[in-house]
Amino acid sequence: MTQTALVLIVGGLAVFVGAIVQGSVGFGLGLVAAPVLTMLDHSLMPAAIQVVNMTLPLFTLAVEWRKVDWRGVAFGVLGRVPGGLVGAVIVVYISVYTRGVFVGVMVLLAVALTAWAISVPRNAVTVAAAGFVSGVTGTATGVGGPPIALVYQNAKGPQIRATLAMFFFLSAAQSIALLALVGEFSGRAAATGAVLIVPMVLGFLVSGPLRRYLDGGKVRVAVLVVAAVSAVALIGQSLAA
């Protein structure tokens, strides 16, 4: 099986699972898919996953846009802009193998923070700070959800999903622009990301019926385990290269 086929099949499955989770709880696509795609073909990352990251929120917003916390989005984006610049610098000056370790470590950190569900007060400072961290990790690795999700964890489901969706859409658009500016957004990565939109759409459609029936806690535990295992495997692969 060719590398391209592996990316589309295995990576597509990871995107499908990640879209189910993000469609259900508001985030999770990057946690599941970024380590897998990086292992399969690091040259596609983080550009390919950002194409998917920018598209998925539109489906959530089509349903729940009225629940967006616009004040929170504004402060999050305020922090996200300089964070994205830092992330772009990391992509340019850190080797692909070191970046693989960085992706793995960031995913493990995100998994730990998400699993512990640390209580973070939601105000202008914390949302802007979360936006900054999300900008760094999101642009450099494709995993930018957990910092913002932690700040909004005590909000109601529709508000979490809608607010994160708007933030992720704007964040991914910024990351794509920055990656293109520094020459890290290739046509091949863009095309791969476009193809991966198909399993993403299927995952989102599956998340609709499951959203009200599944125990979010159990689903999240399973996803975090898969993400952690993928991250550890990626770190091992990168260190052995």
From TrEMBL:
<dbReference type="InterPro" id="IPR002781">
    <property type="entry name" value="TM_pro_TauE-like"/>
</dbReference>
<keyword id="KW-1133">Transmembrane helix</keyword>
<feature type="transmembrane region" description="Helical">
    <location>
        <begin position="101"/>
        <end position="118"/>
    </location>
</feature>
<keyword id="KW-0812">Transmembrane</keyword>
<feature type="transmembrane region" description="Helical">
    <location>
        <begin position="75"/>
        <end position="94"/>
    </location>
</feature>
<keyword id="KW-0813">Transport</keyword>
<feature type="transmembrane region" description="Helical">
    <location>
        <begin position="6"/>
        <end position="32"/>
    </location>
</feature>
<feature type="transmembrane region" description="Helical">
    <location>
        <begin position="219"/>
        <end position="240"/>
    </location>
</feature>
<dbReference type="InterPro" id="IPR052017">
    <property type="entry name" value="TSUP"/>
</dbReference>
<protein>
    <recommendedName>
        <fullName>Probable membrane transporter protein</fullName>
    </recommendedName>
</protein>
<feature type="transmembrane region" description="Helical">
    <location>
        <begin position="164"/>
        <end position="183"/>
    </location>
</feature>
<feature type="transmembrane region" description="Helical">
    <location>
        <begin position="124"/>
        <end position="152"/>
    </location>
</feature>
<comment type="similarity">
    <text>Belongs to the 4-toluene sulfonate uptake permease (TSUP) (TC 2.A.102) family.</text>
</comment>
<dbReference type="Pfam" id="PF01925">
    <property type="entry name" value="TauE"/>
</dbReference>
<keyword id="KW-0472">Membrane</keyword>
<feature type="transmembrane region" description="Helical">
    <location>
        <begin position="189"/>
        <end position="207"/>
    </location>
</feature>
<keyword id="KW-1003">Cell membrane</keyword>
